[in-house]
Structure formats: C-alpha cells, structure tokens
Task: structure prediction
Amino acid sequence: MEASATLSLMDTPRLGRAEASRAGGDPDRELVARWQAGDGAAFEALVRRHETRVYRFLLRMLGDPTEAEDVAQETFLNLHRHGRRFRGESRFSTFVYRVAANGALNRRRALGRYGARIRRLAQRQAAGDHLPAGPRDPESALEGSETDRLVQQAILELPPRLRLPVVLYDIEGLSYAEIARALELAEGTVKSRIHRARATLRELLRPVVEGGRR
Amino acid sequence: MKCARARACMSPYLEREIEPRACDALEAHLSDCRNCRRELAALRSTVDLLRDLTAPATPAQLADRTLARLREAPARGRAAWRLAPGLVAAGLAALVGIQLARGPSEAPPALREPTALPELDLGPLFGAADAGKTDASVEAQLDARLDALASDPDGFLAAWRALPEPSRDGLAAALGARARARGDARGLAAALRATDAPDAERLAQRIAGD
Result:
C-alpha cells in the first residue's frame, strides 16, 4: 500500500508534484493523532508504514545496507522521542524524511569514508580505467543492474548538501516545498542544488549515458 | 543565447520552470546547436537513470527490530535527570562529552536519550557564562565543549542536535560568549559552516555573535 502511494507521487508529471502533495492531505493524520493521544499501536503502525520509505532513502544516501538499517532504526527512535512535537504543519512523511536526513548527516564519517572510496574510483576512471557502460549480463540486470550500481556510486560522490535534495526529488518524488521544509532550506536553494546535482551526475555518468544504453 | 547559458537552463527547462522568454531563447538555440541538443538529451537520460533505479528490498523484520529497540530504550536513561541542579550540569557535560568521544554512530539509544532534558533549568549555568562571570568550573566546561567543536564540528553538531530546542539555544549562547572572550569565535563559526549541515549556520551565528 505504501509502495503504491509513493509510486503515485513518482509517476505524477513533474509539473504536478506540488499540487498532488497538497491535494492529497496527510494520509498519516489519523494514526499520528492516535499516537499523540498515547496509542502505542498507532506508532507501531506508522513504523511499519514508513520503514520501506526510510530505509530506501537512507540506502541511497549512505550506500551501505548496514548503516542504512541502523540509521533507519535511529530515525524511528528519534521520532518516538520527539515526534509528539509534530504539529501537522507538513505531511508526517516530510517530518520523517527530515529526521532521517539528520540521521544520515550524523553519519558524516560513513559518508566521508564512502566518498573517499568513490574518489579513488573517479581517479581510476580519470586515469583511463573506464567504468563499464551498461549491464554485464541479464542475471545482474535482474538483481539490480550494473547501471543501477554505477548510478548509486555517482550519487554517493555528490557532497551531502547536493545529494540530499536530488535524492528526495528525483528518487523519492518529494515536491520542492516538501524538500524545503524537510531540509530547512529556501525553495530557491533546493531548486538550484537539485540542478547542480543533476549537472554533476550528468558528468559522472557520462560513460553510462553515452555508452549506448539508450 | 550562448552554449554555457543554455546548459545552465537545461535542468529547469526539463522541469518547465524557466520564464517563457528564456524558454524561447533556449529552444531557438537548441534548433541551431547540435552539441546542446545532445547535452539536453544526456541530461534527460541522467534524470531517467535516477528515476528508473530499482527500489532496494527492505530488510526483513526491520520494523520488528526497531520496535524491540524502542521497548528497550525508555527503560534506560530516565532516572539520571532527577538529579540536583549542580549535578545536572555535570550530567550534561558528560552526555555531550561521551557522545563526542564515541561519535554519534556508536552511541547507544540511552546515551542519545534527550527526552528528560526539557525539564532542565540551564539558566543559572549558562546565564552566568553569558554574563561573562568568571566561574572557573563553568569556563572549564565550556572550554571543553569548544575544544570538541574545534576538533570535530560534525560530531559536535550531532550532539547539539540531539538536545531539545531550549537547551540548544542556551548552550549556544553560552558557548558563543565564551568563544568571543577567548577570541576564537570566528574560526569556530567558519569550521561549522564548512560542514554544510543544514543547521550549522544557526549555531555558527550564535557562536560568532552575528
């Protein structure tokens, strides 16, 4: 059910994103109200509803399944501690992304470590050791293609200030306004960071894009 | 329109966010410039690559493990906040110190437990520091925090972020006053800004007294 809600956002034409998120109201409102009134089962339902979204976002941000799961758990623990302050000024899911984003930023060591590995890869690439242009074989494509792996590597090479908004916009399907609220940034800043992130990714993924994939 | 300008407009163009006049100019340029047409197609493919990423599978029982941690966490870490005010300051110092020493990723939930902090009255401690009174024990505590901030701005931000709002401002005001008295407030603010964390600017301003 959660996946279809996310898909419907991601499938929305780019222009319609903000309108879609406003028009839909907050599907979590009732559960949040019950939880804030002391119903522990409602919080459990919120965890189950958002676990996929949070884990997927953190995996894109951190690139490591163990780190992503650990930060996902911390995200829900922090929500439980602070979430009663949530006043419904944004969607609850936006608030969840905000807490998860803070959790990811708190793992700056992990981000940096991964960044160093990726920089080494980039140096290899610059030295002529080119990355493969597309999926190696159908089996790897079924498991998550070589292209996916290269795209993920490129995402991890972005500095966190660019990585966060582009992951939230182009992968998670949030609107500019939602990202601005989640990251405490002006909408104009969010837009310009997304555009810069895409331009950087376009350079990093040049071998993939120009390697005959399309 | 020149190629450099055209390329800067391409991502907003894909989102249909550029002004009609700029849009017309870009389209006119594209009709004449094969390289920019290729560049636009490549950017569109890059965005498609992001949107076509296969969604990873969520680990089995992630929610169950999270809820199990949640049931464990509240049992620890509550009683400590019912201490006398003098011990509370030491407790806060220990909390921040431990978090900074261990790093945010290693701190178990109980150490990060900030739920009892809103009841803390930090006024006497931080009020004294903010007013420039020379209480040696206060200064020593603040110096330790500032040294930790200098050596690991990211770790400090993580610990600061874990505090509830009222304590954050109190701590930031006290640290700012002390840093300005020491003369290294500007350097510490610059170190914070270099982290690029979303809330670094807020703390940097308080440290620098901007």
In short: The first helix of chain A runs from residue 2 to 11. Chain A touches chain B through 64 residues (CB under 8 Å).
